[in-house]
Amino acid sequence: MKISGKDIQYDSKAFNELFEWLFPSMCMLASRILKDESKGKDIAQEAFVKLWEKDQKEFADENALKAYLYVLVKNACISHIRSEKKIQKTSLEEGESVEDDGYLEAVLREETYVLLHEAIKKLSPQAEQVVLLALKGMKNQEIAGELNITLNSVKTVKKRAYKAMRESLGGQFVMILLTDFIHFF
Questions:
Q1: d(CA 173, CA 165)
Q2: For residue 2, what are the β-bridge partners?
Q3: Cβ neighbours, 10 Å, residue 36
Q4: Are residues 111 and 78 in the same domain?
């Protein structure tokens, strides 16, 4: 496989890094479409096997690879749903809007989830804990009790963490705020 003209061997460190970066996203997408985490992991693994089988495939960049894998996962999910229900066509293929079936929404949510978690990982350990607890819906007082710190510390840490995340994410921060991402946690 080639990405941006660079040869990537399937037994290489570069492929392993791509797998570790993309596999969780593919699992989550498939799990959301199928509403089953175990089947979602199987579908994501199958997508990487199909990618491996087409070792002459070329991609303009990593985003093109990601888009290709999203399509593989979506198609595998359609096939799985079709085989489980023993139907000939799914609503996606019968001309209904993809948005109606939640596929694009699932992709957007997954991309948002990845961006948000990358920004959270860059925070200090305490800030990461505060933000994750806040995203789970906990109030400042509850977070203070959970982490055994003062209420003012929670407010200060949260304010600094959100500022750092805004700087880290740039314009994408607004997109994340507009997306209902709390359900990811």
A1: 7
A2: 7, 58
A3: 14
A4: no
* Tens digit of each residue's pLDDT (9 = 90 or more) over 26-48: 888 888 888 888 999 999 999 88
Distances (CA, A) of 48 to 16, 21, 52, 78, 95: 11, 12, 6, 17, 28
93 and 112 co-located in one domain: no
Question: Of the residues 100, 133, 165, which one is the last residue of a structural domain?
Answer: 100
Q: Compute the average pLDDT of residues 42-56.
A: 85
Q: What pLDDT is attached to residue 14?
A: 85
Rounded Cα distance, 109 and 93, in Å: 22
Q: Are residues 128 and 87 in the same domain?
A: no
**Domain boundaries, position 159:** 104-184
Rg (CA), the chain: 20
Note if the pTM is more than 0.70.
no
Start-end of H helices in the chain? 13-34, 37-53, 62-85, 103-121, 125-135, 140-147, 151-169, 172-178
Cβ neighbours of residue 177 closer than 8 Å, sequence gap 6 or more: none
